[in-house]
Amino acid sequence: MSQTRAAERPAAVAAPEPGGLPPDPAPPRAPGRLRRRSAVVPWRVALRRDWVLYAMAILPLLFLAVFRYVPMLGNVIAFRRFRPGSSIFGDEWVGFRYVEMFIADPNFWQVFANTAILGGLTLLFTFPLPIVLALLLNEIRVRAFKRTVQSISYLPHFLSIVIVAGMVMQLLSLQGTANQIIEWLGGEPIAFLQRAEWFRVIYVGSEVWQTVGWGTILYLAALTTIDASLYEAARIDGANRLRQTWHVTLPGIRPTMVTLLILNIGTFLNVGFEKVLLLYNPLTYSTADVISTYLYRVGLVANNFSYAAAIGLFQAVIGLVMVLSANLISRRVVGASLW
Amino acid sequence: MVNEIGATLRAPARTGRPVGARDSRAYTVFTSVNTIGLIAFCGLMLYPFVTVLAQSFSSAGAVKAGLVNIWPVGFNTDTYAAVISNSMFWQNYRNTVVYTVVGTAIAMVLTTTFAYVLSKQHLRGRTVLIGIAIFTMFFNGGLVPNYVLISSLGLKNTMWAVVLPGALSVFNLLVMKSFFENMPRELEEAAQIDGLGWGGIFTRIVLPLSKAVIATMILFYSVAMWNDWFNAFLYLDKKELFPVTLFLRNLIAGASTTATEGAAATGGNSDAIAANIQAVTMILTMIPILCVYPFVQRYFVSGVMLGSVKG
Fold this sequence. Notes:
The complex is a heterodimer of chains A (339) and B (311).
Chain A: H1 2-14, H2 26-39, H3 43-74, E1 80-81, E2 92-93, H4 97-103, H5 106-126, H6 128-138, H7 143-154, H8 161-172, H9 177-184, H10 199-211, H11 216-223, H12 228-236, H13 241-252, H14 254-266, H15 273-279, H16 285-288, H17 291-301, H18 305-333
Antiparallel strand pairs in A: 1-2
Chain B: H1 2-10, H2 25-56, H3 60-64, H4 78-84, H5 87-118, H6 126-138, H7 143-152, H8 160-163, H9 170-181, H10 185-193, H11 198-209, H12 211-227, H13 230-235, H14 244-261, H15 270-310
Helix pairs in contact in B: 2-15, 4-15, 5-9, 5-12, 5-14, 9-15, 10-11, 12-15, 14-15
């Protein structure tokens, strides 16, 4: 058994199966091999036959090269001295100078901790809540009501982040609803956005408001695909609705859960940069300042391009490593992966 | 997930939780609690919209006194008149429309052509091309190199700095690619036999048959472009080039700095007026989105599902 497993694994890597299903080693191999054999035509023939297709790809490839890959390479300025106005790849090598600089920078570790806390809290709330909402919606039988709830809950997803920030500010202003309630209860009004201890609550709360509805889509889709005979079998075995949910529904949406968890973990350091930028101010920096806002101020406001690029590169590499390792772990442990 | 969705297509009646004939009493109680809970949830989701709408029609004094929550107090439309007569607001609103149209057009050309190429399974080098696109989803250049690039291309303070960076979404590309892959191959083969080349097949056969997916993509891109503020914030310094989202951002940022700098020192009712104006600007900025939302919502939902199958 262990031997066949070992033989299967490279096959699964070579023929990736997208979509978060456990790698299914036997079937993909055969068509893959067939396709490969028939597809090998000399480049000369391929170019003559399909030159129109290749020509159609030129413009998009040029776009990707200029606006995606050149900035990627532009990260070398993390290791080179850069002067605005001169080459975008910098002037001369300075080695790990800027990396050492941010490692020795206490501000950097402060914003790193803020980012991890904010990202962790966001993940803690925005990952499970859509599952709960989807399960509750799944119990609704009046279709029109279900659809209405869904439509309303998707709405915030379509708004510009500027509008979301504006709404947050209005609700939490001294005249806003939150303070109206506090005063009605006999409390003193709080300037929420000027208080560092409130920032995380505000950020995570507004994040939940924006994403909880939209996050249910994939779960609701997965819920409709669960084989009905499983529920019948569970009922015959004497399981009530709660036990059916636990033993049939949740295992049924597990691949979706794992896939989305991987995606969330991989992007967890990319805390909503734009929203923080819109909502924070110098009074709340101690909890609100995250890596991306810090490097924005250091790099683009104070013009330390190389230093900020070093921080940005560090963040991007950590993100990539995290998504790859989360994927690897989930493939080993639960047999579901992104690729 | 591929197989799961395939399974629904084959046998839709046999999946999902069956509707039980007899429910336990506990479950009946649960259903009522659940229904009430979800109604309350909808209220919470809608509350921010309602309160902004109420503020936009309220008098400045009522807003400042903290009297407005779900219903306008001191109903008036003067704030709307004031914002609408602001020429900078209109100029920025027009800019948003222009950026959205131009950006969406560019994005559609890039996305449809590239998706079509990538959907051709016989094409040599196809996997490499797909890899080039997908890699950009997991690793991107980052803020500073992008800024340096846009500056050195001389795009700062031009429309192109706003419309070009977002012109190809790999997610949308993959959705479109999977749509093209699922087109019946016989149509294209027939056209080929009739002597059409790839270009003719694409423009005369494939595109006319893809109106639905093209419409969906146009909506995806235009909503994203309409809502964008950050590229404009980074690359534009001239007020007359701003999109309306940046106009709004400066309005709320201005209001919050006044509040930060002198919560005690605010003499007049300046920030209360700002709250009114903010509310009106927010309403006017989201109206186009809210108007198309009921019609486009399901396309977005199906886009997410397609993306998850192939993504």
